[in-house]
Structures are given as structure tokens and as C-alpha cells.
Write a structure and sequence with these properties.
Layout: E1 2-8, E2 17-23, E3 30-39, H1 42-48, E4 65-72, E5 84-87, E6 90-92, H2 98-101, E7 115-116, E8 147-151, E9 156-157, H3 164-183, E10 191-195, H4 199-210, E11 214-219, H5 222-227, E12 235-237, H6 241-246, E13 251-256, E14 271-279, H7 291-295, E15 300-303, H8 309-322, E16 328-332, H9 336-344, E17 351-355, H10 363-366
Helix pairs in contact: 3-4, 3-8
Amino acid sequence: MIKSVGYAANHSFSSLKPLAFEREEPKQNEIEIEVMYCGICHSDIHQVKNEWHNTVYPCMPGHEVVGRVKSVGAAVTRHAVGDLVGVGCMIDSCRQCEPCQAGEQNYCEGPNSWLATYNGPMVPSAKAPTGTNQYGKDNTYGGYSTSLVVPEDFALKIPAGLKPEVAAPILCAGVTTYSPMKHWGMGPGKKVAILGFGGLGDIAQKIAKAMGAEVTVFTTSQAKVNQAPVVGAYAVHVDDHDMLESLKASFDFILSTIPKKTDLTPFVPLLKRDGTLVIVGALEPLAPFNNMQMAAHRNAIAGSLIGSIAETQEILDLCAQHGIGPDIELLDIKNINDAYTRVEDGEVRYRYVIDMATLKPDAVEAA
């Protein structure tokens, strides 16, 4: 067994604290990763607080993980000891269903769906059609830890052109915004609107521009409107009704990265005929849309869930090719609980990344 230390919460109302635990040694097709950096995603906060009503405790978050391969199983061929690799939201899938066979593991239709990097399978054994768990575990511990063990084909190669700490948020925030833009064919000649200018919105506008699209960002923050030109964006305040009126039927695609329940109906008129509004920021019931309004221009409202393993490698390579990445702020893990508060208050510009060198093996004893 591999002795490890991480930060976890024991209840929805408790803070994250050091936890000593053990990981299994790598199986034949698995690799052991010494974690160097782990991004903080807003979904980590939702999960720790059980806001989706499916949290398994202890909850050790972290699905934007970058580190070095420390050891490999006997059958591993994709990675070698010392390689710089990344792990996103998934560490396995059923591998047998139609989506998995098509390389879309993020839409796995197996009895337990895909296995999340933390919080276990998307469908726990108690709710699976078979009543069993194909993965043999109902909880997993994520990247807020010293180590991770995953199948080799669920680990991504970090390109040489990306700093490892910058690559970390791309493994979730990057692919979550890239996947729908790729699916709906965004590129040269397309006009894209990004709703929200936080962690997802920042990287989304950079990716859209790298894909060749014309991009506008909508935000509730006047400060971000003012600073937008500095980061290369054109931004509109959502309460600027005259501007919204002037932008009717302007966009081929709108991507909502807003991380909480928000009425998005005012943005539907901004879509061109056959335009699509895709929601990636909020996984909860939203205000109903006016179908008469959508029917008038054959508009669509859609969702999108993270991205596939192949898409994650694509966006890592795209970011390296174009020299782009999220704006990050490195974090000492002992400040994790304060960081959660700042993320919720929108005070971070734009992604926190935990420096795992600050997580000492004796952290449990020192806590």
C-alpha cells in the first residue's frame, strides 16, 4: 500500500483538514503519480458542501491534477517513470457501452457510469441497475493529496509548452469549455458569447479566440468589464440593457459558465437563427425558457459534461500551441478553506492552483 496524505471534509458543514490514508499499489495497467499541482474547481466546493446531494464522505476533492509518474504497472506502455502527466475528472469508465466505444467516456452508460477522480462512480452501487459496483469502490480520493493511482489511458501527457501549474485547470475548466465549442463547430467566422468571466469564462474566451471565433464576454462585474481589454477580451455588463438590445440575433453560440442558478432567458434573443446556448456552469434546475421565443429562430438550449479523454489531450495541445492558459494564483494548501470562501465570493483572478509541495507528509500530526 502507498501511504498518502490529503485534505478532506468529513461532513457538509466541516472544513477541509489533513487526512492520512493509503492507496493501492498500481495494477498492471496503472500508474502511480506524485502530485505536484491541483487546481480548485467550483465543483469541488459544491461537492464538499453536498449541494448536489450525492457526496460520499470523507470527501477529498481534486480533479485538475498534474504530477510526475513515480511507478508503473508491468503492462504500462503509454507513460514512463518521470513523465509529466495530468488527470482530469475521470479515472475510469465501463469501456463497453456505445459512448465509451466511441471515445466519449464522459457520457458512459455503464451500470455505474464513469468513475470520478473523487467521490466515486457517478452512479453508486445502491442506485445501479445491477445493485453492484463494477469498480469495487463507492468513494475515491482526489488530487488534494500527495499521490494518485490511475489507469494509464486516463492520464494525459502534459506538453512541453505548458507550465505544469498552468496545465492543471485545463484538465477540467479547459476541456469543459472546449468540448461544446468543438461539438457545435465554433471557429473562424463564428461569433461566440461567454456568460460569466470567472475561472471558466477566462479560459473559455481564450480557447474560443484560439479556435478562430470572435468573442464577447458578459459579466456582472463592472471591474471585469474595465479590465477586459487588459486580458484581450471584449466585455459587456449584463445590466447594460441598451447593449443587450443592440446585440439581438448576433451570436452563433452562447456558453454559460455561471456556476450557480441564474435566469438565462434574457440571453436567448442574442442568438442568431439556429444558434445554441450551452450551459456548463450550473448542474441544477434552472428557470424555464420561453419555447415560443426559441421556436421563432430555431434556437436550442443544451448541456455539455466535461469532455472526453481525447478532447482533454486536444485542448492541452491547443493551449501549448497557442501559448495560452488560465490566469492562476498558487496556493499553500493550509489556506484551502479561506480559498473556498474567496472563490465563492468571486475574488480570485481566475483559478487557484494548490502547490502540493506545501502538503507535508507530517501534516496530519501537525493539524
